Amino acid sequence: MTTTALAPEQAHAQLHELTVVDVRTPGEYASGHLPGAHNIPLDHLDRALPALKAAAGRGDLLVVCASGARSTQACTTLAEHGITAATLTGGTNAWSERGHDLHRPAGARTVWAMDRQVRFTAGALVLTGLAAGQRWPAARWLSAGVAGGLVFSAVSNTCAMARMLGKLPHNQPRTSDLDATLAALAD
User: Fold this and answer.
1) Residue of 23, 65, 66, 122 marked active site
2) Are 19 and 38 in contact (CB under 8 A)?
């Protein structure tokens, strides 16, 4: 199955016609999102299916993330449930590189982008494994496991570490925020 993709210029020209869904974590969303975007983190997509189906019935959906990888995954999930959506080629990174505006809510909590959280965590685990391996050689397997996970992540274009980090409290939406977003999409 192929996913429809819109280049940043196409999306910018059609933005007033699109319902934009940002599947990044709430912290990433708060750090800058497309104007009018609704935040539904990827791991909450199943809960949002009825609201997204209703929104898609009224017009075209554009799904975005930082680079396009998570939004492509979301579009695949939506397609499996009969919901047509397009992804933004290159994500919000490409959007902002083209000089398009990103909205940043005043006073919103921001966290590191997920790729930065993954790099930090992976690096910290590798260093821990190597340092502990000086005293307990078997601890080096931690470093080897992380390295293997990173290789698998690159080959499969998935990231188990990002999925795990996405479940941390600072990466989760407030229930009231998600409920309000789903209600807005369902109307």
Assistant:
1) 65
2) yes
